[in-house]
Amino acid sequence: MEDLVKKRLLESSDIKRALAETAETQKIYRAAEIIAEALKKGNKVVLFGNGGSAADAQHIACEFVGRFMKERKSLPAISLTTNTSCITAIANDYSYENVFERQVEAFVKHGDVVIGISTSGKSKSVIKGVLRAKELGAFTVGLTGKSGGELANVVDLCINVPSDSTPRIQEAHITIGHIISEIVENELFK
């Protein structure tokens, strides 16, 4: 069992090291810059995903609303994965594919930044949410892995983790969220 523990820890660090050696690092910084500019203008960040990506969306939103590393004012960010009544009503009345699209329609305004998270890039609900956000004039970011799937082709900026392992991709996604949070705090609260 100890070998398994070491193997998984090394896999996680290897994926992050590989990510650090790609052009994705520039995209991470660019996403943070775009978010900081949007927040300066009074806009917000909206995040969503399914399963572990839903948890990541909540986690990253919390870093903006609460704080990350600095004591500072709260920043407007919302995860569309937290209102179970809304999610289940939309899934029941329409389709699960519409759970983010309908919420995006309600909450996203021109100039907001929308982050869709999908390890495969194939989640229909995430893709439909992102497409609706683009129609409303939001800047869209995708956090993906594997080939990036369809999500990579529909977002304005795709950050793709170079892995086919869902757990390793998710571990990298939360690291990316932390990096973006740190950059945004440094930009807004020097």
Report on this model:
With 190 residues, this protein is of the alpha/beta class. The chain contains eight helices and five strands. The chain has helices at residues 2-20, 24-40, 52-65, 84-93, 99-107, 124-135, 149-154, 166-188; strands spanning 45-49, 77-79, 113-117, 139-144, 157-160. Strand 1, helix 3 (52-65) and strand 2 (77-79) form a beta-alpha-beta unit.
Number of strands: 5
- Indicate how many domains the architecture comprises: 1
Largest beta-sheet details: 5 strands, parallel
Task: Kindly identify the CATH topology.
Answer: Rossmann fold
Give the overall form: globular
Mean pLDDT: 97
The structure class reads: alpha/beta
CATH superfamily: Glucose-6-phosphate isomerase like protein, domain 1
What is the CATH level 1 assignment?
Answer: Alpha Beta
In short:
By secondary structure, this protein is α/β, with parallel strands linked by helices.
Q: Tags for this entry?
A:
190 residues; alpha/beta; Rossmann fold; 5 strands; 12% strand; globular
How are the secondary structure elements laid out?
Layout: H1 2-20, H2 24-40, E1 45-49, H3 52-65, E2 77-79, H4 84-93, H5 99-107, E3 113-117, H6 124-135, E4 139-144, H7 149-154, E5 157-160, H8 166-188
Parallel strand pairs: 1-2, 1-3, 3-4, 4-5
Helix pairs in contact: 1-8, 2-8, 3-8, 4-5, 5-6
